[in-house]
Design a protein that fits this description.
By secondary structure, the protein is of the alpha/beta class. The protein has five helices and four strands; from the N terminus they run βαβαβαβαα. The protein is globular and about 35 Å long.
Amino acid sequence: MSDGTGVSGEKGAKSEQLVGIVLVSHSAAVAASVADLARALVGGGATVPVAAAGGTESGEFGTSAELITAAARSVDRGAGVAVLTDLGSAVLTVKALLAEGDELPDGTRLLDAPFVEGAVAAVVTASTGAGLAAVEAAAAEAYTYRKV
């Protein structure tokens, strides 16, 4: 469950070594809902630190560098932070933050993955204790999920 900051609770010492996940959407409701869905589908794995960074500080649709930075810092446990985005300016904002070099925690990576399926794959994989490279690969693999 969320502690009100958008970050899921933790269980035991193992969670300290998990990759953190940040979900960036133009909509706070979309980011929070995708985070809830991904957490719900983990099953019995460790509780992954997940933060939703949706919308702007004033609650409008858009993208906020400040919300993204705060979310990334809140989920950083030293194993890396995986960031998934929904659309255009969300991607550009994260790329700009990464280029600045000092806004996001070391080991923060923007993942090239579909937002919903990639988020689920990333959270499920991170819950196994997998490293950032494995989380990234699982999220990217979600592009190949067939629906028909």
